[in-house]
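seq:
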Amino acid sequence: MTTICTADDLNAAYEAALNRAYQRTRISAFDNHVLAFDDGHYEVIDEGDFGPLDQDIIDRIVHTAPGRMSGLY
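struct:
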């Protein structure tokens, strides 16, 4: 059986990743990047968890939420 992802599924996954990235920037001084993968899923990485980003990671970035360390926590 083949599962077909609709545009709504992809939009919801992207929106969830964006929300996660912006939530993480509240407590991070580093940028958070939303990465897109070929199978349609998205992941969020904190630039502070990595050294210099590999070109493969850079090529997958679809959005960057700037770090801001708001001091709320």
